[in-house]
TrEMBL record, chains A, B:
Record's keyword annotation contains Oxidoreductase: yes
Pathway participation: Amino-acid biosynthesis; L-threonine biosynthesis; L-threonine from L-aspartate: step 3/5; Amino-acid biosynthesis; L-methionine biosynthesis via de novo pathway; L-homoserine from L-aspartate: step 3/3
Catalytic activity field: L-homoserine + NADP(+) = L-aspartate 4-semialdehyde + NADPH + H(+)
Listed name of the protein: Homoserine dehydrogenase
Top-level lineage group: Bacteria
Root EC class: oxidoreductase
Presence of keyword Amino-acid biosynthesis: yes
Length: 428, 428
């Protein structure tokens, strides 16, 4: 049987894992896909570099176009990253009838609709399971597993770096800066950690998940993102005392066809399954009208987990080829996108205030909430030895974001309120 | 566009859920599957019975053959249960070119290979996502999501009734009999609970999961099953003290192509994600050579969760029909089944002994382990106020089952050992 020929763009961590699996599992992959799979060309930056795996030198090239234009390549596996230039290469590959498997969340979050549109026109597959939550097959789960249900909420711990940092801060009572430095030394965080710690990476993944879950073309600009760089060890300690863990959650919600998507550090109740997801692990919690609560847990990154998802996609492309249905099982968003206004976005909130420690202040504070029709679940006043101010922790009932913003604005103008130390969304 | 016509066998809990979803989500289902889906005939036991949903009376029939033989039915949805007679109906439906969606674990565990074989011959789909772990799409995950990996271990909490009972026993320190009675009153346990509490239901589900995960035709008789009816509140309390929860786990393992599958109450370490799966929830933990640890969590039963999986399968059948690939995406086991011997099955173990409280007994006990080359992780001797015997709790390192059986046999013949109170496998 004629082998399916793969052009591999990138031989970094994930690319190396892909070579290991394709070469190591030849027999299994053929049994499952129906054809032998052969990596025929590999794009590298430097052909002469030493590598941890053996690859025959005549497969290597330093030119992506060598691979895109080769008639000897059926499927492109893109694990090199990049956005604009990579997009051009992918569109050119589709123009030449090549299928695509990619692990590139940035590409799919920013240019997914354009690429998928071109693929449909050309009868090609584009698969991207590895772009979100590395080893967890969450994309097929949303497309196939929940095709019959109406998903109303997706909450994801989809960034391993920030989950590692928050877990360490929680378990060791350590400060953000110290843990970040340690994570950088261990290779869990980049030397410029902005994309991870400010929530931008998670926002890209949530763009992809929300598009699939809500069947509408969500744009990255629809996602509001707030990172963890302002999370203090005090916040974590207070949260813990009240029964919460701080997690960087991506939250996509739908109510009556209106959608909101955000990424922010969130107080997650200990009894919620996401609260126990620790270290570099990822998890995606999906709530469906019919199915109720589900959660999918696994490694979010790493050579072999991510390569597993890439090669599973490759198997699916080969199965489709053998059935003659490439480009015909794609996901097509069929709903109009309607975003929630701030009046429609609602959640519980955790607020930590520093206020003057004198009679009547608490009454003033609670009066502000009442005035904006935000009702309170609990109020905790805490003496603070180190300064003459009182600390007040408030947990609200569900309140809309517009009202909450008005409450906070009013606090800013009150002389009795010295600082709004922190505000978190609360889940669970 | 011509609607796909469904013959629904059974209008109990799950059947009612299927009708609700198919009728309530018409537009969404059509957008995703490409065709309208219509339930054209429904098998009921008694046409005159009052129901919680409205169904037009001319769709109802009391004869399964009415549906199987109807040229007006394209897909059979079987949610009535039963084994031998149901198998005959399913084979007859396949002979007539009808596709099958079933939630019937008993049918698939006992007759899966025969039914799938016939389906392949006839170019028909047989889908059974709802047969294991109700709302969790674990079957597609094993077939598609992990197609590139080598799965070495599947551990499942796949029976909600027993997980409810064990959770209650753990959280309230209650005795088995009392919690079982309560579960029966709440409808979580059958009046004859044997199939659930003795592990037979879980064994059937593990037969299906192991077949998919290991690509070999596993038979129900390959699964050893032990239930929870002998689990005492003392066992649970001791486990907790040492950092374990007792869970009824189905465990399917593979090592060098040798497989073992069992169901038994197991001490699961608190840090393991399965330890936190409580109440009637189900979870399946999958370990793959490449991906590492993953876990899939959700409702294991119930009208709407199970119906979600049934209708997702129905959508998949309709998609396949529209692509003309029915019966060609099926799962085909391609590996020879080789079962592990007792010498090859290995695990850590928890053993609780009642022994004579006198000098030298502990030395005798540990001597027995040494003699059979079972090394020990910890030994805890516990004074017991209520009787003149000492309690000894031993946790072994990994030990093979044959050696463990020899150890236990030798204890039985020792006068110093008054009782082997309990033996559990240990995981995590």
């Amino acid at each position: 049987m004629k082998p399916v020929k793969v052009g591999l763009l990138g031989l970094g961590t994930v690319g190396t894992g892909v070579v290991r699996i394709v070469e190591g599992h030849q027999h299994d992959l053929m049994s499952q896909s129906g054809s032998p799979i052969e990596i025929s060309k590999i794009l590298v930056k430097d052909k002469s570099k030493a590598r941890s795996i053996h690859v025959s030198e005549d497969k290597l090239t330093e030119s992506a176009w060598d691979i895109i234009e080769s008639p000897d390549v059926d499927v492109i596996v893109e694990v090199m990253g990049g956005i604009e230039q990579t997009k051009e290469l992918m569109l050119a590959a589709l123009d030449r009838g090549k299928h695509i498997v990619t692990a590139n969340k940035d590409l799919m979050a920013l240019h997914g609709p354009e690429i998928l549109q071109k693929a449909a026109e050309k009868g090609c597959d584009v698969m991207y399971e590895a772009s979100v939550a590395g080893g967890i097959p969450i994309i097929r789960t949303l497309i196939e597993g929940f095709s019959s249900d109406r998903i109303t909420k997706i909450m994801g711990i989809v960034n391993g770096t920030t989950n590692y940092i928050l877990t360490k801060m929680s378990q060791e009572g350590a400060a953000y800066d110290d843990v970040l430095k340690e994570a950088q030394q261990l290779g869990y965080a980049e030397s410029d950690p902005t994309s991870d710690v400010e929530g931008f990476d998670a926002a890209r993944k949530m763009t992809i998940l929300a598009t699939l879950g809500f069947h509408a073309n969500i744009a990255l600009s629809d996602v509001t993102a707030k990172g963890i760089s302002k999370v203090s060890k005090e916040d974590i300690a207070y949260g813990k005392k009240l029964g919460y863990e701080v997690k960087l959650l991506g939250i996509a919600e739908r109510q009556d066809e209106h959608i909101s998507i955000s990424v922010q550090p969130t107080m997650v109740k200990h009894s919620h399954p996401l609260a126990a997801v620790n270290g570099v692990f990822n998890a995606v919690y999906v709530y469906g009208e019919a199915v109720g609560e589900t959660m999918f847990y696994g490694p979010g990154a790493g050579e072999m987990p991510t390569a597993t998802s890439v090669v599973a996609d490759l198997v699916a492309v080969v199965r489709n080829s053998n059935l003659g249905v490439n480009g015909r099982r794609g996901f097509v968003p069929y709903k109009e996108k309607k975003l929630k206004t701030d009046e429609q976005i609602s959640s519980k909130n955790f607020i930590l205030l520093h206020v003057e420690d004198k009679a009547g202040v608490l009454a003033q504070i609670t009066q502000v909430f009442a005035q904006h029709e935000v009702s309170l679940e609990s109020v905790l006043q805490h003496p603070n030895q180190s300064n003459p101010l009182a600390e007040i922790i408030i947990i609200t009932h569900d309140a809309n974001k517009a009202s909450m913003n008005n409450v906070l604005k009013q606090f800013e103008s009150m002389s009795a309120v010295h600082a709004i130390k922190s505000v978190y969304r609360v889940e669970g």
